[in-house]
Design a protein that fits this description.
Length: 307
Amino acid sequence: MKGLEQARAFYEEKGRAMIRERFPEYEARIAVGLAGSGSQCFGFDDEISRDHDFEQGFCLWLTDEDDERIGVALAREYRRLVGARTSQASLLGTAGTGVMRISDFYRRFTGAAGAPQTWQDWLYLPSYSLAQAVNGEMFRDDLGQFSHIRATIAHGMPEDVRRKRISARLALMAQSGQYNYTRCLAHGEEGAAMLAISEFVSNTAQLLFLLDRRYAPYYKWLLRGVRTLSVLSDLADSLEFLLTAENDAAGQRLKADIIEDIAAHIVPELRSQGLSCISSTSLEKQAFHVQSHIENAAIRALHVMEG
């Protein structure tokens, strides 16, 4: 059973009754679900995932005021319910389940008690942080405060910011894939060429998430996440091939062709979304074209690779 399914089942079987019996007056005020850090929150977990930073359980989110009233007591009852940890805790791991303030949960990922407020926040917050803020599932949220913030983050990125992020990804794809990969090979720098390929794959995957209006996860799950997209998910195999195929002379030529093929698939999607009206497969030209249609003058004036 996947971690999300296990968390929901555990809440339905034991958690719901505990809250109702011990905190009946707060039952409709406690938001319950599973979201945040951890592969299980993305639905990407397997048996290997359970050897560290994995706990049976779920999240209980409280307002600041309710946390002052029942936070300690609720946490005590929750720990009695779930028992001891079921996996090792890594030094970089964070508490993924249990009782927490709504404000603290979102502050971990956005730096604020809720959704980003300014276009600068939306532009410079890492995509993987925003992805962790909105992944997983909600099991109950009668009060709606947690879910309102969640929905704002999931759907509230300003369009000009999305365009800026897209233009930056296109520019970096052009630089790393269409330009530097073959030039590094010509210089005899095969290691640098592979770094260029890696940059191209990473930026392409992040672009595909932006085109699907979703947030790209941590690099570990980036390619797996591409396979879940509704836009150009079939490019995942090509991206993985670029990273894993042999880098002999034949492989180098094939990789250069695949880079151009990926560009040829992306341009029609840019045009269909109204992000571009040119047909050039030069991703650099596409980057500047997308940026030129940003309405906010301050965002439009940023360096094409910024964002």
